[in-house]
C-alpha cells in the first residue's frame, strides 16, 4: 500500500482553530488591545457578516450573565438535512454532527420534525473564555470519524474536530435562531447559480434576497456532476443565469445548455439521456415542466 508523501499532515478540521489562534499570538494580542469577542464563520458562507443586533446582545449581557459562546442556527430545509444540530446533554448544549450518529438513527437525525434547526457555523466567542479554557486544558471536542476515498480508490479514515463542538467547554452557551440569509454557502455550482441569479442583490457588502421572491426559502437545485461540477463548464452551459424568482425545484442532468433570458418557475426537471443533447432556446419560459431527451415538454 502506498501512503501519501506526508502522511502526518492531514486536514484536522476547523476544531484546530483554538490552538492555532493562541499559537499565532493573535489571541493574546487582541485581549491586550481590549477586544472582547471574536466572530468566526466558514470562508464559503457569503451570508456571514457582523450582525450588530447579536453583538448588542453580547454586550448587554456581559455584566449580569455573560455569554461566552453563541452559535447561530437556522431553520432546516431539504437541502440541510445533514447539517449539525444542537442537543442538550448533562445540562450542557452540545453540537451533534451526522458523522457521530449511528447508521440506524441517521433518518431520525435528518428529520426536520425531530431537529428543526442546524448549525450555520457562525460563532461568537468571548476571547478571555478561549484563553481560560486553553490554560485549563479543558477544551474537549469529540473526534469525528469520516470515511473517505483517497487517490486510486484507497479507502481512508479522516479524523477531525469541529469548532462548534467546543461549545460545551464554555459557560453561558446559547443558540440563536437567525434568518436563512445568514447562511449562504457556496460549495457546489448549484450554490453558485443561486447567488449569481436575480434572487440576490448586493447591499452594503451583504447579499440580500430580492423582495420580489414570494417565498423566504431558496430553491432546491440539483445539477448533474458529469456536466456541471466544474465552474468553467457550468459557465459555458449557463451564458446567463435564468430568472429564478418563482422557482421551487430544479433538476438538470446530462448534456444540457441554456440560452439567455430563460425563466424557470415551480418545479422544472430537464434530463438529456446518454448520447442526446438539449439546448434550451433564449427566452424559454418553463413552469412545472419536465423536458426529456427528445425535447418533449410535459406537465409536471
TrEMBL record:
Homooctamer. GO terms for biological process: glycogen biosynthetic process; UDP-alpha-D-glucose metabolic process. Keywords: Nucleotidyltransferase, Transferase. This is UTP--glucose-1-phosphate uridylyltransferase. InterPro entries: Nucleotide-diphossugar_trans, UDPGP_fam, UDPGP_trans. It comes from Frieseomelitta varia. Its EC number is 2.7.7.9. UTP--glucose-1-phosphate uridylyltransferase catalyzing the conversion of glucose-1-phosphate into UDP-glucose, a crucial precursor for the production of glycogen. Transmembrane segments: none annotated. Belongs to the UDPGP type 1 family. GO terms for molecular function: UTP:glucose-1-phosphate uridylyltransferase activity. It catalyses: alpha-D-glucose 1-phosphate + UTP + H(+) = UDP-alpha-D-glucose + diphosphate.
Amino acid at each position: 500500500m502506498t501512503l501519501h508523501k506526508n502522511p502526518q499532515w492531514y486536514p484536522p478540521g476547523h476544531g484546530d482553530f483554538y490552538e492555532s489562534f493562541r499559537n499565532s499570538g493573535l489571541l493574546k494580542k487582541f485581549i491586550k488591545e481590549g477586544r472582547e469577542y471574536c466572530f468566526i464563520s466558514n470562508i464559503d458562507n457569503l451570508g456571514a457578516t457582523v450582525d450588530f443586533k447579536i453583538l448588542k446582545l453580547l454586550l448587554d449581557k456581559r455584566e449580569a450573565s455573560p455569554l461566552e459562546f453563541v452559535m447561530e442556527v437556522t431553520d432546516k430545509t431539504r437541502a440541510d438535512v445533514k447539517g449539525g444540530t444542537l442537543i442538550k446533554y448533562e445540562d450542557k448544549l452540545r453540537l451533534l454532527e451526522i458523522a457521530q450518529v449511528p447508521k440506524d438513527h441517521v433518518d431520525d437525525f435528518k428529520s426536520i420534525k425531530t431537529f428543526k434547526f442546524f448549525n450555520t457555523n457562525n460563532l461568537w466567542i468571548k476571547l478571555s473564555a478561549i484563553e481560560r479554557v486553553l490554560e485549563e486544558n479543558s477544551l474537549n471536542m469529540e473526534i469525528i470519524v469520516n470515511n473517505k476515498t483517497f487517490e486510486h480508490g484507497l479507502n481512508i479514515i479522516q479524523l477531525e474536530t469541529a469548532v462548534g463542538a467546543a461549545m460545551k467547554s464554555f459557560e453561558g452557551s446559547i443558540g440563536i435562531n437567525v434568518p436563512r440569509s445568514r447562511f449562504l454557502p457556496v460549495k457546489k455550482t448549484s450554490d453558485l447559480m443561486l447567488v449569481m441569479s436575480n434572487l440576490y442583490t448586493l447591499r452594503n457588502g451583504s447579499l440580500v434576497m430580492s423582495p420580489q421572491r414570494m417565498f423566504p426559502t431558496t430553491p432546491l437545485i440539483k445539477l448533474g456532476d458529469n456536466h456541471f461540477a466544474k465552474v468553467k463548464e457550468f459557465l459555458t452551459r449557463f451564458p446567463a443565469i435564468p430568472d429564478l424568482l418563482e422557482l421551487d425545484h430544479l433538476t438538470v442532468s446530462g448534456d444540457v445548455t441554456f440560452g439567455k433570458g430563460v425563466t424557470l418557475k415551480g418545479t422544472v426537471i430537464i434530463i438529456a439521456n446518454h448520447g442526446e443533447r438539449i439546448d434550451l432556446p433564449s427566452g424559454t419560459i418553463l413552469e412545472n415542466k419536465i423536458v426529456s431527451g427528445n425535447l418533449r415538454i410535459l406537465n409536471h
